[in-house]
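Now for one record.
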Amino acid sequence: MGGTGSVRLSIAHPELFCAAGSMGGGLQNRSEQMVAAIERAVPVWKKNGFGFFLVNGDNDRPDAFKDFSTMLDAGGIDNKVLILPDTKHSLGLYYERSVSEMLAFLAQVTQLGG
């Protein structure tokens, strides 16, 4: 639950982090509690210049962050959703195919926010 965990921790404690990345995670934010938690976090993220980099494979729940990304866009929160072609749930494949882009995104966000 590393990819999901990083996002959930950022939602639960928006003041503690300046960016989050997820490889192969997902977020089912259809519950009222999750939506309310995200809505509470958005102003804190916006103030801190927070950013999310969310990676999934096209064979591993490619829409896992669709609703979340829509909420982030509406709140003006920097985020990138990357769907990797021909990719199943595999940390090795995620790392090989996206880590350099994720690190560049997170570096840019943390420089802008800090």
